[in-house]
Amino acid sequence: MNLIETEADVAEGAAWLAACEPRFALALLETGPLPLRLREGGFSALLRAIVSQQISVAAAAGVWARLEAAGATEAKAVAQMDVESLRAAGLSRQKAGYALALAQAGVDFAALRQMPSDEVIATLVRIKGIGVWTAEIYAKFSLGHADVLAAGDLALQESARMLFDLPARPTERELRKLAEPWSPWRSVAARALWSYYHVMKNREGIGA
Fold it and tell me: b/e per residue, 16-25, with b = 16+ CB within 10 A?
């Protein structure tokens, strides 16, 4: 299983993509070196993902600070709480239920590190509140898997539309199909698409 652990790994993947697909070579001229973006894994990483669903970055940071103040960022502590106490710490009723489901799922996070991507995703999506996108983001950035796209991401879809001159933003299924030739470096392709998206959106903002 190919892993991304260093900036050199990202650069290797980027060079491969540029040689494989000329449009990535053009995108990389715009973006420059791509970010590593690795983050810690474990329970708190998935809880953060739940907290961040459908709210702004600033709002998510505020909720997370309240959870930290309540001592509610580790599985053992959360499992001993109830929905109302988690709501008091800033979570919606729905997200409090998701947090409890995650805390009580008994995920073996060390074992996840030895699994291929499809098994990681299958394991995580069994937990209430963890969808495919969240599971793929975890595999990509917390486990360093090199060949995970997260095709349900709207920014990736929009970036692919711009970079590949598509008539419309591709669906998740269409983007997965488009990305098949980018294996075994689809995680780097996602980094390139995200970076390209931000470059183009910033350019549009300046132009306006």
Answer: bbbeebeebe
Cis, peptide link before residue 170, omega less than 30° from 0: no
pLDDT tens-digit readout, 108-158: 999 999 999 999 999 999 999 999 999 999 999 999 999 999 999 999 999
d(CA 37, CA 6): 10
Q: Which residues make beta-bridge pairs with 3?
A: 145
In sequence order, which residues have a C-beta less than 8 Å from that of residue 28 and are 6 or more positions away? 14, 17, 18, 34, 192
Residues 6+ apart with CB under 8 A from 194: 155, 156, 159
- Per-residue pLDDT tens digits for 179-191: 999 999 999 999 9
Q: 145: helix, coil or strand?
A: strand
Name the DSSP letter for residue 3. B
